[in-house]
Input
Amino acid sequence: MIRRQFLWFLVAGGIAAAANVLSRIGLSEILPYVPAIVIAYLVGMATAFVLNRALVFKGASNSMGSQVGWFIAINLLAVAQTVLISLCLARWLFPWVGLDWHPETIAHAIGVMVPVVTSFVGHRMLTFRTPGSATR
Output
């Protein structure tokens, strides 16, 4: 059960990540890099909430308000990870190693992937609780 749930979480996350990265590319046409990352993350987060609620964590027993609150809290921690990783890669590591082919896009894509496991655990245990989920 948990393996299949994690696979669906990856599918939902992949779709949300694509929405995130593609919207960041478009937003970068009109905004600086960091604000574009943050707004794009919100696009991805909304996509992820809808997909996770509908496809991954169908049996959640806690209220919608609780789900939204925990989802936001867990994703605020994840956005901090995403921005930190993206900036470290794009501004320091990639220039240091000489990577100059779309460094911001590559850095951002990697930054979006980092919080996958911690987010799954947090959402499974807190956001979309099912009876007994804290002990699974």
